[in-house]
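Box S1 | Example of a co-folding query
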Amino acid sequence: MKFSVLTLFPEQVKHFLSESIIGRAEEKGILSIDAVDIRDFSGNKYGKVDDTLFGGGTGMLMQCEPVYQAFSSLYDAGNEPKPHCIFMSPKGSVLTQEKAKELSKYDHLVILCGHYEGIDQRVLDEIVDEDLSIGDYVLTGGEVAACVVIDCISRMIEGVLPNSEAYEEESHMQGYLEAPQYTKPNVWHDKRVPDVMLSGNHAKIKEWKRIHGLYDTWKRRPDMLSKLNLSPDTWKQMLLIDQEENEK
Ligand code: ADE
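Box S1 (continued) | Returned holo structure for adenine
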């Protein structure tokens, strides 16, 4: 899968994504991540790509043409379809695991990052397919948000993580949070790993994880639980865990 990030700060994006799992996936050729400097398409020797706002207002706005030229440099418009273009913006719909899964199906994603007061609406209307936010707060630019989006999508691509179970079982993938996890030693600071985890009974372990994942979701993110249609028996088991927790 190919990501092209259109930005005024390519080094910021490259630095973040060259490390760890994503960096290794790039080395292996599973991912290709390109950070394109919009300033290279300024059309002037100063690399100026912004100007003051029409209608007043503070700050500077990124101009249409450099953004358009940077986008156009990414594909051969005569022979290739226009790549799917995402604009990182606090006005966009908020990224979810489900959205990331949907975006992971594209072969080529272009991620446009704004800075200053934003980007002239006319070029956004021409090239952008969807606006995406990473949460209800405002960042200084879209670069950090673009890195979050690329990280989240990349780990769903075959070969990036050691096996697909690594992400399919985890928080948010099934609509609820992941259950607590344990490793050696069996006892630490008088705290025991739950017996079922040492039982070797895979069906029981799976059910324990499901119920405890749902229990944690109920306690931490009740908004997520309302979307799941839980059986009376599941609720009964969760209430039992709650009783145990309250007795601790
Ligand atoms: N740019 C500024 N704030 C943002 C946010 N919350 N999400 C995505 N892009 C942004």
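Residues 88-90, 133-135, 137-139, 142, 145 surround adenine (CB under 6 Å). The radius of gyration is 23 Å.
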